[in-house]
């Protein structure tokens, strides 16, 4: 052990049998300055050595919480409610043979694997914003999608979300999670989040800035999280966080709310960032206290009204959450915009009728008028109205739902549309066994004596979980699962 590392055992109470881990001495000193009471250090270090409880969030776009609990209880799952999220649960399973991510229910989008503390920011956002008002929400640092999918589930297909991710390599995974969860009212962007304050000034009803941070709160999940920690990095990232928060406030409508959150624990990246931004705009920002967010929120509430969640308070990861209301406009610097033309056009009346007829005839799906139907070459897309209004203001990587492709008189529904509309599908549904469902996820065709030539597309379901599309051929159903979603070794027990 290097001289600048602390052995946790020296901080633990006498008689503790906890296995020690090492932390940088400057980190322990910095954290000591952030503790509400001196005895918190012993408790913090003790909990850093404890395994993190597994937690999940039910995707209420696909199944109710009550139905999910009943379903999984029959499979030997023991669920304990997360107090700050109605759809969140800590999980224990009797059968651990199948990896949680390879269960039928996960692949089918019935739940999302999410750390309990990370459910806090979205719960805080909707304490102040009404989901039934169809708000436009910005998730400024969205990948891998846990909070975006939580926002979407809360909105229940109303309103719209701009999900931004700075890292281009993470966009694919973000979209995959949105697709699996059946979400259509999202547009993806790939920017440094500091652009939104200038390009989309005062456009959003609510903004979630789950800021990049030093990750000190993730020690229980990732013991290597502190390997590259340094005071210099903390100060550098705090400067970035302040820039992103400033941009978020400019992008927010007056009367709207920004939730600022991190999975780190020091005051430099948390309380001090909020202090600096409120000093910068003293007349335009109101701190909204979070002590009544849930029954025991007061245990984590700071004097300022933020939630500073230490691992020992709720037996979770460490987290920080602050809510800021924009009480008046903040002048934004003018920006010279040159947005490339959108490569889509609005569908003609004839094109709308053709798509509507196909969906109704093949699947019994009735297309609603809430979104804007757009066409690009032979592709048909649905854009959320609120996002469509922004297409002249900023470039989007992907908008809404790709519905179908047209080939002369033939149509092909997309996988994401089939998943999104699964609950509305009335016709051409084929029930698969668990063994057949596993074969489907492995990318294999399904033997089916009842399949007929020319039968067209069918929605495949196993144990009430929608899997995706197939096409009927003589004696089999041809697999239509997108290649990037294939899981070669999946087995369902």
CATH 4th-level superfamily of the largest domain: Vaccinia Virus protein VP39
Number of helices: 15
Helix content class: 25-40%
Q: In this structure, how is the largest beta sheet organized?
A: 9 strands, mixed
Which class of secondary structure composition applies to the elements?
alpha+beta
Q: Into which percentage range does the β-strand content fall?
A: 15-25%
In total, the number of domains comes to 4
Compute the number of strand runs. 25
Subunit organisation of the chains: single chain
Rounded average pLDDT: 91
- What's the N-to-C terminus distance? 45 Å
Q: What's the CATH architecture name of the largest domain? A: 3-Layer(aba) Sandwich
Q: What's the CATH topology name of the largest domain?
A: Rossmann fold
Low-confidence stretches: 1-20
Q: In one word, what is the shape?
A: globular
Task: Provide the gyration radius in Å.
Answer: 24 Å
Q: Which SSEs are present, and which pair or pack?
A:
Layout: E1 5-7, E2 22-24, H1 25-34, H2 40-48, E3 55-58, H3 65-73, E4 77-81, E5 88-93, H4 104-107, E6 111-113, H5 120-128, E7 136-139, H6 146-155, E8 160-164, H7 171-180, E9 186-189, H8 196-199, E10 204-210, H9 231-251, E11 252-262, H10 271-280, E12 285-288, E13 307-309, H11 311-314, E14 319-326, E15 345-346, H12 349-363, E16 372-376, E17 379-383, H13 385-388, E18 398-399, E19 401-407, E20 410-413, H14 415-420, E21 429-431, H15 434-441, E22 446-447, E23 456-462, E24 465-473, E25 476-479
Parallel strand pairs: 7-8, 7-10, 8-9, 10-11, 21-23
Antiparallel strand pairs: 1-2, 3-5, 3-6, 4-5, 9-18, 11-14, 12-14, 13-14, 15-16, 16-17, 17-19, 19-20, 22-25, 23-24, 24-25
Helix pairs in contact: 9-10
